[in-house]
Design brief:
mainly alpha; Growth Hormone, Chain: A; 427 residues; 20 helices
Length: 427
C-alpha cells in the first residue's frame, strides 16, 4: 500500500465511523425512549400496563429476530445498502408511532422502528472489520457502544423537555425525520470496504477469512458448544433488567411512586446512560489490565446487579433521592455497559470465521429478555388495583421481585461461564 493510499484510508474511515456512530445513537434512543413518555402514551392511547408493555417490547421482537438476517444481508447485499434501506423503514415506523390514532397503530409503528434499526449493529461490525485493523477493533467497538450511551441519554432529559414542549407524538415524528436524514448520510458517505473507492484493504485477516464456514455449519457449531449457553442465558436475564426498568417501567415508577415530574424522572433515568458511557471503558480496562480475564468482571457485575434489583424489590418506596440516581447509574454500568465483556467473551469462544454468526446468535438473547419482561412487568402491574390511573406500590414490588429473580439467574449463569481470555506466557 502506498503512503498516499494509506493516508486516504486512514482519513476517510473516520468519516464512515462517525456517520455510523451517529446512526447508532438513534438505535439506542428508539430502544430506551418509552420510559420517559410511557405515562403520556398510556393516557393518550387509553392503554393499560399490559398493552403499553407490549408496545414497548414491540421494538425488541423484530430486533432479536433480525440478527441472523442482518449478517446474511451484510455479506450478500452489503452493509451500506442494508443500513440505508432499513433506516428508511425505521423512519416510517417512527412517524407512524407519532401519528398513531390508537394503540394498534402505535404497536405497528414501534415494530417497524425495531425492524429498521435492527439492521445497524451487525452491518457496522462488518464495516469496521474492513476499515480498521483487528487490534483496533475492540477499541472502536467500545467507542460505538459509548455513542449508544449518548443515545440512551438523549432518550431521558432531552426527550422529557422536547415532549413537554411539542408533545410525545411530534417528538417521534421529528426523530423519524432525523432517522431519514441519517439514512441519506449513510448512503452518501459509507462504503463497505476500501476497495469500493479503489483503495487497498487494511484488514490483516485476509488469508484467514478466505477459509469460510457456511451459515448452517456455523450455527450448528455455536449452538452445540456447551460454553455458549451460559453466555446466552446471562445475556437474556441481565438485559431483561436493564430494558424492563430503563427502557419502559422506570419512568412510570419514579413518577407514580415518588411523585416526580417527567423532567425530574428524566434526570434520574439519564444516569442509566451515564453508566453506559463510563462503564464500557471502565469494565474493559478492568478485564484487560486488572483481572486479565473476562469471567471475574462478569461475576462481579452480576453480584452488583443482584444487589441493585434487591433494592428495587425490597425497598421500592424507601430509596432516597440520591439513592435513585445511584441505582440508575449502577444499572447502566452493571446491566448494560458490561455487555461489552459479554460480546468479547462470545467472540473469543469461537474461530474468527464464525465470530459474526456467534455474535448474531447471542445478540438475540438480550432483546428477547427485554421483550418478555417488559410485557411480564406490565401484566404484573395491571393485575394490582390502580388508583387514579396509577399503578400501586404492591404492583411495583411484585414487578421488581421478578427483576430480582433475573439477577439471581444472571449471577448463577456468570458462575458457569468459561474463561476465554488468553494471556501470553512470559518466558
Amino acid at each position: 500500500m502506498s503512503v498516499d493510499s494509506m493516508r486516504k484510508v486512514l482519513r476517510y474511515r473516520w468519516i464512515i465511523f462517525w456517520t455510523l456512530a451517529l446512526a447508532y445513537v438513534l438505535v439506542y434512543f428508539h430502544r430506551m425512549c418509552p420510559a420517559v413518555v410511557a405515562v403520556d402514551m398510556m393516557q393518550d392511547l387509553n392503554a393499560g400496563g399490559s398493552l403499553i408493555g407490549f408496545l414497548g417490547s414491540a421494538y425488541f421482537y423484530p430486533y432479536a429476530l433480525m440478527q441472523l438476517p442482518a449478517g446474511l444481508l451484510s455479506d450478500s447485499w452489503g452493509p451500506r445498502k442494508t443500513i440505508t434501506l432499513f433506516f428508511c423503514v425505521a423512519f416510517l415506523g417512527s412517524v407512524m408511532l407519532g401519528l398513531a390514532p390508537n394503540a394498534a397503530w402505535a404497536i405497528l409503528g414501534r415494530t417497524l422502528t425495531g425492524l429498521g434499526v435492527a439492521m445497524l449493529f451487525v452491518p457496522t461490525m462488518k464495516v469496521l472489520s474492513e476499515w480498521f485493523r483487528p487490534r483496533e477493533f475492540a477499541f472502536m467497538t467500545g467507542i460505538l457502544l459509548a455513542m449508544g450511551g449518548i443515545g440512551s441519554l438523549s432518550a431521558t432529559i432531552p426527550l422529557a423537555l422536547i415532549s413537554s414542549w411539542i408533545g410525545w407524538r411530534m417528538s417521534f415524528v421529528v426523530v423519524g425525520i432525523i432517522t431519514l436524514v441519517l439514512a441519506v448520510l449513510v448512503w452518501s458517505f459509507v462504503r463497505d470496504r476500501p476497495a469500493d473507492l479503489g483503495w487497498p484493504s487494511l484488514s490483516e485477516t485476509t488469508e484467514v477469512s478466505q477459509s469460510t464456514i457456511s451459515l448452517i455449519q456455523g450455527v450448528k457449531t455455536v449452538i452445540s458448544c456447551p460454553a455458549y449457553w451460559p453466555v446466552a442465558t446471562w445475556f437474556f436475564f441481565d438485559c431483561a433488567v436493564f430494558f424492563s426498568f430503563g427502557g419502559l417501567w422506570g419512568g412510570p415508577y419514579l413518577m407514580q411512586i415518588y411523585g416526580l415530574s417527567k423532567a425530574q424522572s428524566g434526570q434520574i433515568l439519564s444516569m442509566l446512560a451515564i453508566g453506559v458511557i463510563i462503564g464500557s471503558p471502565f469494565l474493559s480496562y478492568l478485564s484487560n489490565n486488572v483481572f486479565k480475564a473476562r469471567k471475574p468482571v462478569l461475576i462481579l457485575s452480576s453480584i452488583a446487579l443482584l444487589l441493585l434489583t434487591a433494592l428495587l424489590a425490597f425497598y421500592t418506596d424507601r430509596i432516597p433521592l440520591a439513592g435513585l440516581y445511584l441505582v440508575c447509574l449502577g444499572l447502566g454500568i452493571f446491566s448494560s455497559a458490561v455487555v461489552v465483556i459479554g460480546f468479547t467473551t462470545t467472540k473469543e469462544l469461537f474461530p474468527v470465521q464464525i465470530a459474526g454468526t456467534a455474535t448474531g446468535l447471542v445478540n438475540i438473547f438480550p432483546f428477547a429478555g427485554g421483550a418478555v419482561f417488559q410485557i411480564l412487568l406490565g401484566y404484573i402491574l395491571e393485575r394490582h388495583a390502580q388508583t387514579q390511573g396509577s399503578f400501586t406500590l404492591a404492583g411495583y414490588q411484585q414487578a421488581f421481585l421478578a427483576l430480582f429473580f433475573c439477577g439471581i439467574i444472571a449471577l448463577l449463569s456468570s458462575l458457569c461461564l468459561k474463561e476465554t481470555m488468553e494471556v501470553p506466557e512470559l518466558h
